[in-house]
Amino acid sequence: MPKKTRLTEVERPMPQAARLSEDATGPRPAGTARSTLPLDGYTRWGELKHVIPASHETVRRRELAGRFPKRVKLGSARCVAWKNSEILKWLADPASYRAPVEG
Q1: Are 96 and 53 in contact (CB under 8 A)?
Q2: Residues 6+ apart with CB under 8 A from 78
Q3: pTM check: above 0.85
Q4: DSSP state, 64?
Q5: Are strands 20-23 and 42-43 parallel, antiparallel or unpaired?
Q6: Over the stretch 31-56, which tens digit does the pLDDT of each residue have?
Q7: Helix (H), strand (E) counts: the chain
Q8: What are the pLDDT digits (tens) for 62-72?
Q9: If we measure between CA atoms, which residue out of 25, 30, 38 comes closest to residue 88?
């Protein structure tokens, strides 16, 4: 039986999000918000995790601190999503983003 070898970083195929795509503004990573998130509507975590450079737990902690958009319940407590317009604002300037105060 042949011995299994591990692929090095150079030999591994490039993930889909890291490949370049082109549009009117020129080349950019395919996983960027402009190419994956519409301006309005909501996005669930399964799609958002490919756009946000943070883990689910980091996002949760930033939400509690007001440093990331708040999730919205869609029907049940287990079905949540984030508003695309707020995610795009956060992606534009994550360091100074503050979630809108509900009230």
Answers
A1: no
A2: none
A3: no
A4: H
A5: unpaired
A6: 444 457 899 999 999 999 999 999 99
A7: 4, 5
A8: 999 999 999 99
A9: 38
Alpha carbons 61 and 16: distance in angstroms, whole number = 28
Long-range pairs, 94-101, Cβ under 8 A, ≥24 = 94/67, 97/67, 97/68, 97/69, 98/66, 98/67, 99/63, 99/66, 99/67, 99/68, 99/69, 99/70
Task: Please tell me whether residue 33 adopts helix, strand or coil conformation.
Answer: helix
The tokens for 81 are 């999503």
How far, CA to CA in Å, does 70 sit from each of 9, 35, 37, 42, 58? 36, 22, 17, 12, 13
Neighbours of 31 (CB within 10 A): 16
Q: CA-CA distances (angstroms) from residue 76 to 44, 72, 80, 81?
A: 13, 10, 8, 11
